[in-house]
Amino acid sequence: MTIPTTQRAAVIETFNAPYTIKSDHPVKQASQLSAGQCLVKLDYAGVCHSDLHVRNADWANKPNLPLVGGHEGIGRVVAIGGSDHDGSVKVGDRVGIKWIGNVCGKCEMCRKGHESCCPLSFQTSHGFRVDGTFQEYTVSFTNYVTPIPEGLDGASATPILCAASPKLSQAVNGLTVYKALKQANVVVGQWVAISGAGGGLGHLAIQYAVTMGLRVLAIDTGEAKKKLCLELGAEKWVDFMESTDLINDVKAATDGLGPEAAVIAAGDAKPFNQAILYLRSKGTLVCVGMPGGAATLNVPVTLLIAKSLTILGSAIGVIRNQQDVIEALRIAALGKVKCRHEVKPFEEINSVIDDLAAGKIAGRVVLRF
Question: How far is residue 205's CA from residue 287's CA, in Å, rounded to a whole number?
Fold first, then answer.
């Protein structure tokens, strides 16, 4: 196929400002691709809370500008760089783009299955260190794009790529939150509080938790998110904007003792610190969300010791344990986990980001090119 020289793209030119929508952004041509790179023509791009943090320079490490945002996308390979590529993908293949662009596969972290900790992964983050998916054509890496089955709806699969390994398709449906729930060390019938429950990762976490036989307390705000969370199987709901004493409200909703675990998928520091106070003894806090700014976890050491709490950080899901993959695939194949999403035109990206910042989006929004 003929590859155009220009395209539509949403570019961060200034922090804390709307994306600049360009119609003449350059497209990297096949002859310009390095060995191991591929050019993907995108059909859909997902919008994640991390995209808001990147645009607003909320994190301590800031990207270089100008930058094309976005780190979730599905499309087809239209060109591959070099003549000696490994054959892992070919022109015409349907693939997904995600946060991590590439890993070395050789370092200690990669060998142990912790690909998200590979030094190369930090250098190739789509929409953060390299141009991302808010453009019609994006460059990625042949050994790390995710194969996408032909029969799978692209719009529903795109948000899953925020939380998937390269070797997993949509069927894995949010391996990041499934991994977090397994790390929470809870068993059937126990309570798990999910903060950010009405968001992209949170609403997937509810579905996995319910399927695992856990009792879910959803924490978020707004009627739309409340409706979504309860529909997905959450037994209890606490609106953090309406609650005047969230700690006691959470405890009261979970047998008066607090949940055995908390999975925090929110982008703010406060719910992480609240969880320490409402968890019951021997409880586990699993940190998934990425708060902006110099967010800190302020843990009273005496409380941590007295309650024998466990605190874990859980990054992007990877294939560390094949059994986890088998279980996640089985759950998805049974139709127990589905991503709730809304499709909007690419040109509406700035209004979508504004709604995201205002907490108005339940589930995910996917942009269509």
Answer: 13
Give Cα 104 distance to the centre of its chain. Answer: 22
Boundaries of every domain in the chain: 6-166+317-368, 174-313
**CA trace torsion 145, 149, 155, 161 (10° rounding):** -30
Separation CA 205–CA 247 (nearest Å) = 21
Query: Quick one: average pLDDT of 23-34?
Result: 96
Burial classification of residue 168, based on how many CB atoms lie within 10 Å of its CB (0-12 exposed, 13-18 middle, 19 or more buried): buried
User: Is residue 107 exposed (0-12), middle (13-18) or buried (19+ Cβ within 10 Å)?
Assistant: middle
Output the CA–CA distances (angstroms, integers) from residue 206 to 168, 209, 230, 243, in the order listed.
Answer: 20, 5, 9, 21
Position 146, amino acid: T
Q: Which residues contact residue 270 at a Cβ distance below 8 angstroms, ignoring those fewer than 6 apart?
A: none
**Topology of domain 6-166+317-368, CATH:** Quinone Oxidoreductase; Chain A, domain 1 (3.90.180)
The answer to whether the beta carbons of residues 61 and 37 sit under 8 Å apart is no
Q: Give the pLDDT mean for 317-322.
A: 49
Which CATH superfamily, name and number, covers 174-313?
NAD(P)-binding Rossmann-like Domain (3.40.50.720)
359 pLDDT more than 90: no
Cα–Cα distances (Å) from 3 to 79, 127, 281, in that order, read 9, 22, 59
